[in-house]
Amino acid sequence: DVQVLSQGSGWSLARRVVVIARIFGIHLANKSVDTMTSGTRILAHVFAALALLASVGAFYLPGINPNDFEEGAPLEILASKLYSTKDQLPYDYYSVPQCLPSEDVQRGNKVRPHQHLNLGQILSGSRQELTPYEIFMNIGESCKVLCTKNLDQQDVKRLKSKIADDYYVRLNLDNMPGVQTFTNSKGEELYFMGYPLGNVENSGKNQKIYFNNHVEFTVLIHQPKYTATSFYTAADDNAILYRVVGLEVRARSVKHKFQGQNLTSCPVEDGNHERLELADSQMSITFTYDISFVMSEISWATRWDPLLKASPEFKRVQYFSIVNSLLIVLFLTALVAMILLRTVYLDFARYNNLEDREDIQEDSGWKLCHADAFRPPPAMGLLAVLCGTGAQVTMIFISTVFFALLGFLSPANRGGLLTALISLWVLTSSIAGYVSARLYAGMGGESKNSVAIGSSFLFSGTAFCVFFFINAMAVIGGSSEAVPFLTLLFLLLIWFGVSVPLNWVGSIVGGRRKPFDFPTRTASIPREIPRYSPIPPTVFSLLTGILPFGVMFIELVFILNSIWTSEIYYMFGFLFAVFLLLAVTCVEVSIVIAYLLLCNEDYRWWWQSFIASGSSGAFMFGYCIIYLFTTPDFHGIHFSSALIFLGYMLVVSVAMICMTGGIGFNAAFLFVQKIFDSVHID
Question: What does the record list as coiled-coil region(s) (predicted)?
Answer without folding.
Answer: none
